[in-house]
Amino acid sequence: MLRRIGVIVWVAALAAPSLAVAAGKVKSPPAAAPALSPANYPVERYTLENGLTVLLHEDHTVPVVCFWQWYKVGSRNERQGITGLSHFFEHMMFNGSKNVPPKEYDRQLESRGAYSNAFTTRDMTAYYEEGGKESFETMLKLDSDRMRELSLLPDMLKSEVEVVREERRFRVDNSVPGLLDEALYSTAFAASPYHWPVVGWMKDLERITRDEMVDYFRTYYAPNNCVLLLVGDFEPANAKSKLAQYFASIPRQTPPAAPVDSEPDQIGEKRVDVRYPSETVSIDVGYKAPSVASDDIWTLDILSNILSGGESSRLHQALVYEQQIALSAGSSFRAGLEPGLFELYAEMKPGHTAEEGEKSLYAEIQRLVSDGPSERELQKARNQAEAGFITALKTNNGAGQTLGYYEHIFGDYKRMFTAIDRYRAVTAADCRRVAQQVFDAKHRTAAILVPLEVGKEAQP
Fold first, then answer.
1. Do both 184 and 331 map to the same domain?
2. 210-220 vs 154-168: helix axis angle to the nearest 10?
3. What is the pLDDT along the chain (460 residues), one digit of tens a residue?
4. Residue that terminates a domain, selected from 194, 215, 247
């Protein structure tokens, strides 16, 4: 089931001009560029009586449909003792239900030319199927059956927990990026629901009881905690009828309580060393960054593009090309429901130290804080953000992911219609102001891989 792990991409919108970011050439958008709007990108939203939210976007470009089920549950909804349950149920949803025996889910889809996958993050768990429109009703049968009555037999639960433990060993315990990411978040956050890893702590995976599993599923896999998204070649009247037929009778559940974020203000840099066999030093640095509730998230997206948007970006140019001390360097930011991290990372060349890497990373950050970006850098970063947004909506799958992200994280899919204008409005002054606020050493956490000789284990 390792193939089930997915990555959600920060995407944006659709209809906009074609923007070129080519070698030495940056093309600014025309003043009268067509805007993305409900008029040129129609979406219908409605809610069934059981609280299930449905979003429909009709597109007859190709005879294909993509069907998403977006559950409002991620690792932030867990607690100490049951960490990893959200990801665990991502696995369980493919392991049989009342009318679908184990291994039949994929077989039935694939025999009709469709395919499926899923991902879990700190904020959500999402599933999708994509295939010819003749496979649509099969998707509904399978997905409504597992929402209504997933197989929660003790032997099946026990077996799948073993699979998840093995996945944790592979993706975290024996992975430099996995170890650093876990160390960074568990050190940066003390009382936030982002403290624990999405895959869960191993000791929790060893102790979770069946009653806790069943209670978690009943609470979070309820129709009133889910958004269904249908994108592609369908007839709305028929789709609505079929969705009601298969999903309307599933009973709603008591809404879950919102997670509590009690994270105190950080008043000094935090550091953690991770000792693991490796030929190179790696660095993962995180600055406390705002949640989706802040308007500064659009500027942080632009700053991330300035720092790591391609080979001409600041971090690649400084650490990889000019100083030649790193094999790779970059940054990442994605707004979430809770305040998170703006991350910088570097894998050093053999023979180069963490101190060298950190010095260079922080020097580039300080240049942004002091001087801001050049107008050319800023326009390129805006173009990249807009182009990524547009490109995502060119596929049924990307459109469904975008709609789900905005509906859940922003609270309303219609917020996507303002995204392009938000990116275009970011100024150099905004970049300096936000950089000064976020890139404060007091709010920084650094996770450093300290290489051990290959074949040696870390000492306690």
1. no
2. 90
3. 333 434 333 333 333 333 333 333 444 444 444 568 899 999 999 999 999 999 999 999 999 999 999 999 999 999 999 999 999 999 999 999 999 998 899 999 999 999 999 999 999 999 999 999 999 999 999 999 999 999 999 998 999 999 999 999 999 999 999 999 999 999 999 999 999 999 999 999 999 999 999 999 999 999 999 999 999 999 999 999 999 999 999 999 999 999 999 999 999 999 999 999 999 999 999 999 999 999 999 999 999 999 999 999 999 999 999 999 999 999 999 999 999 999 999 999 999 999 999 999 999 999 999 999 999 999 999 999 999 999 999 999 999 999 999 999 999 999 999 999 999 999 999 999 999 999 999 999 999 999 998 666 655 4
4. 247
Q: Which residues lie closer than 8 Å to 346 by C-beta, 6 or more apart?
A: 282, 283, 315, 319, 326, 328, 329, 330, 357, 360, 361
pTM above 0.85?
yes
Residue ending a domain, among 232, 247, 262, is 247
**HSE-CB of 2 using CA atoms within 13 angstroms:** 8
CA 269 – CA 74 distance, rounded (Å) = 28
Residue 421 corresponds to which tokens in the numbers above?
């204008």
Instruction: Give the CA angle between residues 169, 82, 225 to the nearest 5°.
Output: 110
Rounded to an integer, what distance in angstroms lies between the CA atom of residue 93 and that of residue 448?
36
320 in the same domain as 198: no
Q: Are residues 309 and 190 in the same domain?
A: no
Would residue 458 count as lying in a domain? no
| Domain extent for 124 | 34-247
Helix axes 396-409, 375-392, angle to 10 degrees: 110
Do 189 and 240 belong together in one domain?
Answer: yes
Q: Which phi and psi angles does 399 have, rounded to 5°?
A: -65, -45
